[in-house]
Amino acid sequence: EFFDEEVESIRYFDIETQRTIGTATKMSIVPNVENKSFLEARAPFLTYLPKDTQLWINTPSLVVAGLDRLMELAHQTYTNLADTISRATPEELFMSGDAFKRLLLNYTRVEYGKAEWANTKLDSTALPQRAFNKDFHLLAQTLIDANDRDIETILMCANTQQVNRFETIFEDLQLDPKYQTTTIALHEGFEDPDAGLYVYTDHQIFDRYQRFNIKNGAQKRQAITLEQLNALEFGDFVTHVDHGVGKFGGLQKIDNNGTIQEAIKLVYRDNDILYVSIHSLHKISKYNGKDGSAPVLNKLGSPQWQNLKKKTKARVKQIAFDLIQLYAKRREALGFQCAPDGYLQHELEASFLYEDTPDQLTA
Hints:
Layout: E1 2-3, E2 6-7, E3 10-13, E4 20-24, E5 54-58, H1 60-79, H2 90-93, H3 97-104, E6 108-112, E7 127-128, H4 136-148, E8 152-156, H5 160-172, E9 180-182, E10 190-192, E11 197-201, H6 202-205, H7 217-222, H8 226-231, E12 237-240, E13 244-256, E14 259-267, E15 273-277, E16 284-286, H9 304-332, H10 343-350, H11 358-362
Parallel strand pairs: 5-6, 8-9, 8-11
Antiparallel strand pairs: 1-2, 3-4, 7-10, 10-11, 12-13, 12-16, 13-14, 14-15
Helix pairs in contact: 1-3
């Protein structure tokens, strides 16, 4: 199942009923190992890459050792084949570690982890973005100092509103630092004095999590709003998408690695406590259930909520399947063909005081 161009889920299905029978957590892409492979011209995957491709490899020896283990396993399987069918040998189907290494040496490589084949060692003096803690005087002074040292500074903003917000803040502070802005997202900023470049992200400057988009529109519509959050009272039932039904315990400020952040306190069975960041409001919603009946609180760490979600999804899929069957039967069923309108029908229509609407004419 795709979400735009992204694979959202991989599922097994019954070829007769077309119904889902399981979910796959991973997928292995293997070569075509049928007999017709003898007529095919096989080529390693790397040969399809442009010659100017730059490959990033984490500890090359581990990659080579992994390919050698797979080749050894292929040889064992090939030796144990007892049938008389002619099959391709492992060397014809798979690539050994040495062959993979020879191909890699033809490309520009960046080795990290444990570099083993590299001729040049790259030393980076880049440091993570410093913590400004929403101190815009400090930010402005850092930008001014960087400009004096001929270091280019870039503020990466989530949108154009953030760009305008920085301009307004510096204008209110009566400061005029020199910097560039871009609306390209980056997870974390960095400082590289040797390269003459400082890159800062807006979410780190404002001391918040990086904003991301919710793919599921239904979840976004069900997510609690700030207005609903302010209307909640202590003890109100709320639902967390991952942990189930709990009680609202109010807003509290907690220490998160030296940073004070506001979080929502949820109380579960046996007085288990869960703190939800205000940046994760999309994960909670106000509980909606039968009027006058209190729900059963879930327990943190228990599979009860996940099992309930699985059963509910299965039931919804069953309802959808039944509806499809019902509509298919209706479509295949023969209808009753009425006789053409007679003069009595035309006389009745002509006696009607008002003219038919377009919808009535096409009904």
